[in-house]
Design goal:
binds flavin-adenine dinucleotide; binds iron/sulfur cluster; eight-stranded mixed β-sheet; 19% strand; Aspartate Aminotransferase, domain 2; alpha/beta
Length: 406
């Protein structure tokens, strides 16, 4: 086979032009000589072209890029149109009280990581933590102690690209757990299918339900609303330290300023989510071995209450490997869990039902306007549309026409 010669990049510029980039960093892993992830002026991580690429490399990027599409391989599992393949569904929390308090919901995800590390199932965890040099931003980290897992717990509603840890930091002779957004995991799974050594180095992947990545400008708006100068902020948490906890800025003088989850996520961040997330057919991490989410308490109408409480995570295992790790972590006392009926997940996560059931109408609107859209296979986008009403579908169709990509 002859190698194609380097040429001017075409594929990634086209993905960016159609605003399809999820910011996962996969292209910079495939072609680190050609792409580097940088923060764009509108506050999203985007690949910047730093060198020539061959057609061969562009073809490789096309296979893994979630902006272009995602395929779910079921391997004889059944899959729910809203919630994906589920081997076990439960609610629960970390039995480590500090972890439960500090984490996003019940700390179940961190408790599973703690179990995997302490039992030497893995040597290190690839995950996301606060960037100490730029506290509202994220960085990919490799954790090898329970303390590091604790520090990295809690959701950070800002751009992240944990896949970039694969470029230089991953020691392929060690075993890793990988935590990422659903689109990160989808890209990683394709890379692992094509690279047996990488697949051996990452025996387990964990993800979470994902409402979308907000622009970093959202965090600056939170600081501005709090009346703070970003230069005075030495640490920034998006939530946690309670459930759901508060967005909390710590200043140089040691004082803190807080904003409720309702105001920070509901009032600011959720309105600054990137375009790709609005047409995401897999916000529930169908490709991961285990996913966690908020097991929100609901009011009498079935809608989540965001009143402070002790955290509870929803935990779904999706593969035999995820199922056994979850069972073992529970049996070993890292987690307290109880079975949760899958039929009740919809009332706990109405936002995810709305999101998935709207995708078909939104994709249809974009295609009619001539935009490129991701190709989804195995994610049951059309079946999910039946969980919406005709009025909602029309509203989403018209909404996408109004808010088309720039
Ligand atoms: C952008 C975003 C959107 C979300 N949307 C929803 C939603 O719609 N519904 C819902 O129920 N839950 C959502 N979550 C997940 C939720 O906030 C909790 O993470 C989940 O409930 C698990 O809680 P936990 O206490 O078990 O996790 P924890 O024990 O707190 O562990 C969280 C893990 O996530 C990693 N992490 C944190 N931020 C990021 C990031 N930006 N990128 C990659 N990894 C990260 C951490 O490194 C840690 O390993 C979202 C999270 C993020 C980051
Ligand atoms: S979605 Fe990921 S792989 Fe695709 S262009 Fe964006 S950063 Fe690169
Ligand atoms: S909503 Fe989908 S595309 Fe957006 S960050 Fe989450 S998983 Fe990725």
């Amino acid at each position: 086979m002859t190698k194609s010669s380097p040429q001017e990049a075409k594929l990634v510029p086209d993905i960016l032009r159609n605003d399809l980039c999820a910011g996962c960093g996969g292209c910079s892993v495939i072609a680190p000589h050609a792409y580097k992830m940088e923060m764009s002026s509108d506050g999203f991580l985007r690949p910047v072209n730093i060198g020539q690429v061959s057609t061969e490399v562009e073809n490789e990027i096309a296979q893994i890029c979630p902006g272009l599409g995602q395929s779910l391989s079921l391997n004889e599992r059944s899959s729910d149109p809203l919630w994906g393949p589920c081997t076990d569904v439960c609610s629960g929390w970390s039995t480590d009280r500090q972890m439960r308090h500090r984490a996003s919901s019940g700390g179940a995800l961190s408790a599973i990581l703690k179990y995997l590390l302490e039992t030497k199932y893995v040597d290190r965890v690839v995950q996301t933590a606060e960037n100490p040099d730029h506290p509202v931003a994220n960085m990919a980290v490799l954790s090898s102690t329970t303390e590091q897992i604790l520090i990295s717990s809690g959701s950070r509603y800002a751009p992240s690209a944990p896949l970039t840890a694969l470029i230089t930091d991953l020691d392929r002779s060690q075993k890793h757990a990988f935590v990422g957004k659903p689109c990160d995991i989808a890209a990683l799974k394709v890379m692992m299918d094509r690279d047996a050594e990488l697949s051996k180095a990452i025996p387990i992947t964990l993800s979470f339900f994902c409402a979308g990545v907000p622009s970093e400008l959202g965090a600056f708006e939170i600081l501005d609303t709090m009346g703070l100068n970003p230069n005075d902020v030495v640490s920034f948490r998006y939530r946690g330290m309670g459930w759901p906890g508060h967005a909390t800025a710590t200043l140089k003088d040691g004082t803190t300023s807080q904003m409720s989850y309702h105001d920070s996520w509901g009032g600011i961040l959720s309105k600054k989510v990137q375009h790709r997330c609005k047409i995401c057919a897999d916000s529930v991490g169908s490709a991961a071995d285990i996913v966690c989410a908020d097991a929100w308490h609901c009011d009498e109408n079935g809608y989540p209450l965001f009143t402070e409480a002790e955290g509870v995570s929803l935990i779904i295992s999706r593969t035999a490997r995820g199922q056994s790790s979850l069972a073992e972590a529970t049996a070993a006392g890292y987690l307290q869990t109880e079975r949760f009926p899958i039929a009740d997940v919809a009332s706990m996560q109405p936002g995810q039902v709305r999101k998935k059931s709207a995708v078909a109408a939104r994709l249809f609107a974009l295609r009619l306007m001539g935009y490129r859209t991701p190709r989804y296979r195995g994610l049951q986008v059309l079946r999910a549309a039946f969980f919406s009403s005709p009025v909602e579908l029309i509203r989403n169709f018209l909404g996408m026409i109004r808010r088309r990509p720039r």
